[in-house]
Amino acid sequence: MTKAGVGAAAVVLLAVLIFFAVSAWSRQPAIAKPSVQPINFPHNTHVQTYKIDCQYCHADARRSEYAGLPSVERCMGCHKIVAADRPEIKKLAEYAGTQTPIPWTRVFKVPEFTYFTHKAHVRASVKCQTCHGPVETMTTVAAVTGPTLTNDMLNLVGFKPAAPPLTMGWCVECHREQNATRHTQAPLDCVTCHH
Question: What is the pTM of this model?
Answer without folding.
Answer: 0.67
